[in-house]
From TrEMBL:
<protein>
    <recommendedName>
        <fullName>HTH lysR-type domain-containing protein</fullName>
    </recommendedName>
</protein>
<dbReference type="InterPro" id="IPR036388">
    <property type="entry name" value="WH-like_DNA-bd_sf"/>
</dbReference>
<dbReference type="InterPro" id="IPR000847">
    <property type="entry name" value="LysR_HTH_N"/>
</dbReference>
<dbReference type="InterPro" id="IPR005119">
    <property type="entry name" value="LysR_subst-bd"/>
</dbReference>
<dbReference type="GO" id="GO:0043565">
    <property type="term" value="F:sequence-specific DNA binding"/>
</dbReference>
<dbReference type="Pfam" id="PF03466">
    <property type="entry name" value="LysR_substrate"/>
</dbReference>
<keyword id="KW-0804">Transcription</keyword>
<dbReference type="InterPro" id="IPR058163">
    <property type="entry name" value="LysR-type_TF_proteobact-type"/>
</dbReference>
<dbReference type="Pfam" id="PF00126">
    <property type="entry name" value="HTH_1"/>
</dbReference>
<dbReference type="InterPro" id="IPR036390">
    <property type="entry name" value="WH_DNA-bd_sf"/>
</dbReference>
<keyword id="KW-0238">DNA-binding</keyword>
<feature type="region of interest" description="Disordered">
    <location>
        <begin position="310"/>
        <end position="330"/>
    </location>
</feature>
<dbReference type="GO" id="GO:0006351">
    <property type="term" value="P:DNA-templated transcription"/>
</dbReference>
<feature type="domain" description="HTH lysR-type">
    <location>
        <begin position="6"/>
        <end position="63"/>
    </location>
</feature>
<keyword id="KW-0805">Transcription regulation</keyword>
<comment type="similarity">
    <text>Belongs to the LysR transcriptional regulatory family.</text>
</comment>
<dbReference type="GO" id="GO:0003700">
    <property type="term" value="F:DNA-binding transcription factor activity"/>
</dbReference>
Length: 330
């Protein structure tokens, strides 16, 4: 626990040392003496009661505590930059290029459909949206910003939790009308035609301890790596699909089944310090974070909210709840 208030100047020095890996190089950039830089790092470590660096022949290497501190320090820098940007009132003059990376789903379905809003606000910023089945490498400049479902551990990457996607069952009314009975739990899906996205199969062990057993019970009618194909097949009455709850807002013709969520999956926005220093990329980060603001939209809150509570017209057919042992995600 910190013993005193953290001195921002010392934290700023810490960030530079972490970036350069050298007291001497940091002193040159900051135009301070090496002993002064060393003293500020020592004082910060005493304040935090943590060792932030391992001193070695290779230079200054971050400890685990140092990596965590660096992540938070960069977030504080970003917050300060946003305050300055808003105060200056020059956001409409921003220009440049920004590459946003995401997987197939939340990027095109939620971010892409609202991209016009960003372009209207920043007409001189060119946006490139890359949708991939793997996480784009920020450190190799494959993207400026990435929306991802795993939290990065690299100290060079800045990340913020955007929210939680709540996956649940959807089907077309035409499909439901042709069924003798509706599933009352997730374990009854093997009686129905089910549609699977390939990425779910790769993530399923991370979602729920007993999900592997579940996949063995279900003979999926269709497996695809395209969220668009999955949703369109579901809309045409092709079967039951596991989709994030926000799909109810985009496709009101899909019926959310009255069963608890299958899995809550957290996701993050990530970018590097160079993107943070790029006004165009920083504006994109701020805009994307706003799209998932829990005070504005309920879909991405930590707690699951059934679509029928958000959209009264979305009255799902009465079925049942997921058994306790699988509805609790580890």
């Amino acid at each position: 626990m910190a013993k005193d208030r953290i001195d921002w100047d010392k934290l700023r020095v810490f960030v530079v040392v972490a970036e350069l890996g050298s007291m001497t190089a940091a002193a040159a950039r900051l135009k301070e003496s090496t002993p002064t830089v060393s003293r500020k790092i020592d004082e910060l470590e005493k304040t935090l009661d943590s060792q932030l660096f391992e001193r070695s022949t290779r230079g200054m290497e971050l400890t685990e505590a140092g990596k965590t501190t660096l992540r938070y320090a960069r977030q504080m820098e970003e917050a300060a930059s946003q305050v300055l940007s808003k105060a200056s009132g020059h956001q409409d003059k921003l220009q440049g290029r920004v590459t946003i990376g995401s997987g197939d789903g939340i990027g095109p379905l939620w971010v892409g459909r609202q991209l016009k809003e960003f372009r209207d606000k920043h007409p001189r910023i060119q946006v490139r949206m890359r949708v991939q089945d793997h996480t784009l490498d920020l450190l190799n400049d494959e993207a400026d910003i990435v929306i991802r479902f795993t939290e990065p551990r690299e100290p060079e990457i800045i990340s913020h939790k955007l929210g939680t996607a709540h996956y649940m069952a959807f089907a077309a009314q035409s499909y439901l009308d042709n069924q003798e009975s509706l599933p009352s739990s997730i374990f009854e899906y093997h009686h129905h035609r089910c549609i699977l996205h390939e990425s779910y199969a790769h993530q399923i062990e991370r979602w729920a301890p007993k999900a592997v057993e579940l996949t063995k019970m279900i003979d999926f009618a269709v497996i695809t790596n395209s969220a668009t194909a999955m949703i369109e097949l579901c809309r045409q009455g092709g079967g039951i699909a596991m989709l994030p709850s926000y799909v109810a807002e985009i496709y009101p013709d899909l019926v959310p089944l009255d069963i608890s969520e299958v899995a809550p999956i957290q996701f993050w926005i990530s970018y590097t310090d160079s993107a943070r220093r790029n006004p165009a990329a920083r504006a994109a980060v701020e805009w994307i974070r706003g799209l998932f603001d829990a005070d504005v939209t309920p879909w991405f809150r930590d707690g699951f909210i059934h679509p029928k509570e958000v959209m009264p017209s979305q009255e799902g057919p009465q079925t049942g709840d997921i058994p306790e042992d699988i509805s609790k995600i580890a």
